[in-house]
Amino acid sequence: MKLSDLIHKAAAGYPDARLLAYWDGRRAVSNPVGGDTLAEFIVRELCDTFDAKAGTAAQVAEAVRVLTKAKADLGAVVSTFSTPVESSKTRTTTAGCCSLASLLDLAVR
After folding, report:
1. CB–CB of 45/70 below 8 Å?
2. Tens digits of per-residue pLDDT, 64-89?
3. Burial of 7 from C-beta contacts in 10 A (0-12 / 13-18 / 19+)
4. Cα dist. 80→13, 37, 38, 69 in Å?
5. What tens digit of pLDDT does each residue of 56-70 get?
6. What is the DSSP letter of 23?
């Protein structure tokens, strides 16, 4: 399998094949009007990890491995947004109304 074949296979599974906006037929390219940095990331990741000497099965397995790793990393980021976020305003207000003296006063009581 050639790198171009791998990129086109990936593009077939991506919405509107937008991956191809970051592929010039030989290598990954920047596309300032493309507007899809995830598509650009995928093309670059596939290009960076492609081994022309490997067989098709190994190439596909490596593509699956690196994209699965990226998926896990994105999942971890999404998980952080699933937990409540303490606002900086709350932290500041709480810290502003509790001086060290008042905390020590409470501890003595």
Report:
1. yes
2. 999 999 999 999 999 998 887 776 66
3. buried
4. 27, 21, 19, 17
5. 999 999 999 999 999
6. B
Looking at the DSSP assignment, which residues form a beta bridge with residue 23?
Answer: 28
Long-range contacts of 88-93 (CB under 8 A, 24+ apart): none
Task: Output 36 or 83, whichever has higher pLDDT.
Answer: 36
Distance (Å, whole) CA 54 – CA 51: 5
Please answer whether residues 6 and 54 qualify as being in contact, where contact means their C-beta atoms are separated by less than 8 angstroms: no
Residue 26 near residue 83 (C-beta atoms within 8 A) = no
Alpha-carbon separation of residue 30 from 25, 39, 49 (angstroms): 13, 11, 18
